[in-house]
Design goal:
Elements lengths: L18 E2 L14 E2 L15 E8 L7 E7 L2 E10 L3 E2 L3 E4 L1 E9 L10 E7 L4 E7 L8 E6 L9 E8 L7 E5 L3 E7 L3 E3 L2 E4 L2 E8 L4 E7 L5 E8 L5 E7 L60 E2 L2 E2 L14 E3 L4 E3 L3 E3 L16 E4 L9 E7 L2 E2 L2 E2 L13 E5 L5 E13 L5 H5 L5 E13 L4 E12 L1
Amino acid sequence: MGARAGIGRRAGSAALALATTALGIAGAGVATGLTDGPTLLSASTSTAPAGQGLLRVAHLSPSTGAVDMYAEGPGMPLTKVASAVSYRGLTDYLPAPAGVYTLQARPAGASPASPPALTASVAVGAGSAQTAAFVDVGPNGTPQAELLTDRTTAPAPGSALVRVVVAAAGVGAVDVTAQGGGALADDIFYGAASDYATVDARTWTMDVATTSGQTAQVTLPVASSSVNSVIVTRDPQGALAVTAVPDAPTAVPATPAASPAPSTPSPTPSPTTPTAPPRRTPSGSVPAGFGALAGGPQGPALAPEARPMPVVAAPASPRTPLRPTGLSVPAAGVAAGRLQDLDLDARGGLPAPAGPQDLGWFTGGAVPGQAGPAVVVGHVDSWQGPGVFARLRDLRPGEAIDVPRSDGSVAHFVVDSVERFDKDAFPTDRVYGATGGPSLRLVTCGGAFDRTTRSYEDNVVVFASPR
């Protein structure tokens, strides 16, 4: 495969209304300002057709004026996708065929032929959803693009997912606490985000505090099965401002077929203990290589690659399920501090992570260290160079793999074998089938490179067991 919450300091909190922006895309209208008023967080209706991903752009650079946003990529000539996007502005999702896209920002109203003020390349994976955020975190505080991976699977009914994105420069670290629910974000600085936290679907009061002494308080109705970002910015007067936006779930947990209503009401299940959906098995191979190292035409060379935005793990809470939070494979040079969540795409296959240095964990499998196969996927390369799993094929039996988990524990594994399979004969049962105890599979691309399809012909799979 080829291809980024403390509790105190709340004295003097002032009520703060939420504001949202709905920027049109691909010729639709654009709202350049924020509208005051309470915001209901609800699941996004944006979905991507098979073979496509979703991409949106966030203007989080207070040093940059209003810009027109352009995109260029597979089957898309240079196209203006949003006009006059100002700081704190967010575009709608743009459905885009999988591939590498170039984003360009020009001063609002400038000619499309004029040099862009900001440019970046973004790899869009099938079934993925990403937010490319322009933030002032480059050399000497210059703007650059950083990527956030947006959750593409809605949580179980009765619960919701919420993360915090900090776009307030000059205020120090930011804490966000949900009253009665614990910390959502702890010591997160400008240009970084929290991981998604699972909360009950209800109205929450959230306290926002910074190390510079600024505070605010917001009240949010959070809808069932919604996926949301709470973006902390500053208004024109420098005060904290909060924008709540829905992210883009493209699938929902499987539920049993409807049955006739009983004569007496059934008790409502507790939202703090949602029932896990049935596990599903991916079909087919895994698309784990962008293919640059095989030679042939290269991707765009002028635009710098958008880097993953730093993501801080959400503080553990009783409603946060156990999950892997990283992967260490010393013999392969892998030391990852986070894993993206991967679910089945529209065709029933397991997609690749969004970027060449990203790793993805199949949420329909086991948590590493628990009974059953845990599957982690990563790219072997991209047009820009080696991917995170470039050296996976060189592992040898007996070499160590460690997987830190959200409860602070570490699941320890040892390599049993490293095997290569033709993608047309992918061993689904061996990779995803039930096992007597904990097991781990690491998957990437390998073998010959097909220049016609720009895809590798094989998958490399590392089979590992507890040590």
